[in-house]
Amino acid sequence: MQGPLAMGWRTHLIVLLGALLMAAVCIRHYNKVDYNLAAQPMDDLAITRDVAYLPGGRHSLDIYAPRTPGAPRPVVIFFYGGGYDSGKKADFAWVGAALARRGYVVVMPDFRLYPQVIWPAFLQDCSAAVRWTHDNIASYGGDPSELVLMGHSSGAYNAISLAVDRRWLEDVGMDPGRDLRAAVGLSGPYDDLPATNPTTNRKVQTIFGPKSQWPDTQPVNHADGRSPPLLLITGDRDDIVDPVESDILAANVRKSGGMVTLIHYPTLDHAGTLYALAPQNRKSSQVMDDITAFISAARTAAAN
What we know:
Blueprint: H1 4-31, H2 35-38, E1 45-52, E2 60-66, E3 73-79, H3 93-100, E4 105-109, H4 121-136, E5 142-152, H5 154-164, H6 167-170, H7 176-179, E6 182-186, H8 202-207, E7 230-235, H9 244-255, E8 260-265, H10 272-275, H11 286-303
Parallel strand pairs: 3-4, 3-5, 5-6, 6-7, 7-8
Antiparallel strand pairs: 1-2, 2-4
Helix pairs in contact: 4-5
């Protein structure tokens, strides 16, 4: 004999397994495409690999830039995702190529991951990469006064953290409101307290340290109205990071007097917001068009 509680748990388990199966199907679908291979050839780009921004280890970055001469270009610093414990820049060369082909100089750093480090070491690495970019990108055709941070998933957490939580860039002598033109987050976890997220595992709890500091780790708690303009992109079919996290951050930014644009894509899931950056049948996606339009508007607003 089964009571209502037991039946409720069974229903919850079935729903959870169904969501995981859908996520696996999405991942298999995306993995059918080798995006790095599809981005070839890249001889239209000037690519510089493995430039050290700090000594040793994973402290290196790749740079993608159009080969065509011209005035200094806006710079996108892209942080890849991977749950804080996986990922490498070489896997996302296609992102660098896609953005460079839209006229940006693109910087893609590696940074330390769990279990080598926990929060906030990976944010400190990302800040160091931004500092290096500010000081050196002119030599690669970029404009150091036009820096845009961008990331997907945990990489969006990194990008948006640096934009709204001033202490990380201040540690390297920068100010996010002054030195960043904008920041773009794709499917980012911005209000993902381990204590309140039922899918969070012990790994993430360890990464974010003692429970007493968890609120301090979340970008949503640092919106003070002084960040650069933010673009928050989320897919309504995301079953990895709840789209409401973008809603909550956007509301907090607006409440504090900051500038934020929030876009929901009804047909996209967690990975879809990233893979939408790849040209489909030689045509740009709506996501890429929206990102470039946002960056252009932020640059125009700053110039006026």
